[in-house]
Write a structure and sequence with these properties.
The N and C termini lie far apart (44 Å). This protein is α+β, with helices and mostly antiparallel strands. The protein has helices at 2-23, 26-42, 44-51, 57-71, 75-86, 93-108, 123-137, 168-180; strands spanning 110-117, 140-147, 155-159, 162-165. The model has no long low-confidence stretch (mean pLDDT 92). It contains 8 helices and 4 strands, in the order H-H-H-H-H-H-E-H-E-E-E-H.
């Protein structure tokens, strides 16, 4: 089911992305879709109201019509989300938002990097890592930083399939393997 859901989510994302590109506002539509997906993830009440079969479709639509103008002011996103509700695909909203973000990144020529370190990195250090990754990939890089004390020290950077592991934990494991052999 997850594979099928991902495929369906990508199809819906491509449809909205095409509308956004044609209208010249694909980034704005993506931002609104992301906001809605965040709201979906944060609000148990919203999810329950829209997923629960006890509520009639008209009641669900009324809930969305009250929320949408504040979170997604563009008519394209409003119609899109109401279509998702009508087709009983509203639960795919977070997956559609991720797929849309990926389409936007590819269209603009940017990638997202996950940088993990043993301690919180200072902004100048993150900026140096970002510039280094941009040189390596040839694309604009958006860095998301996380902390994992198990690394002991150093940094692990993931950009798509590329993994650059400069952690002390990995260096110790390599040293251990060489000593054992």
């Amino acid at each position: 089911m997850a594979v099928m859901g991902g495929s369906v989510a990508r199809r819906y994302a491509r449809a909205l992305f095409g509308i956004g590109v044609d209208a010249g506002k694909f980034e704005a539509l993506g931002d609104e879709l992301g906001e809605l997906a965040s709201l979906w993830g944060e609000s148990d009440e919203l999810r329950q109201a829209l997923e629960n079969p006890v509520f009639k479709p008209a009641e669900k639509r009324a809930v969305l019509e009250r929320i949408l103008p504040q979170v997604a002011p563009t008519p394209e996103v409003q119609r899109f989300v109401l279509l998702l509700l009508e087709r009983r695909r509203i639960v795919l909203l977070p997956a559609i938002a991720r797929a849309y973000r990926d389409l936007t990144d590819a269209h603009i020529g940017r990638v997202r990097a996950e940088v993990t370190s043993a301690q919180e990195l200072a902004p100048p250090t993150l900026d140096r890592i970002r510039r280094s990754l941009e040189q390596r990939t040839g694309k604009k890089v958006i860095v998301n930083s996380t902390v994992d004390p198990d690394l002991i020290g150093g940094v692990v950077a993931r950009v798509g399939d590329l993994v650059l592991d400069g952690s002390v934990r990995t260096q110790l494991a390599d040293l251990r393997a060489r000593l054992v052999n």
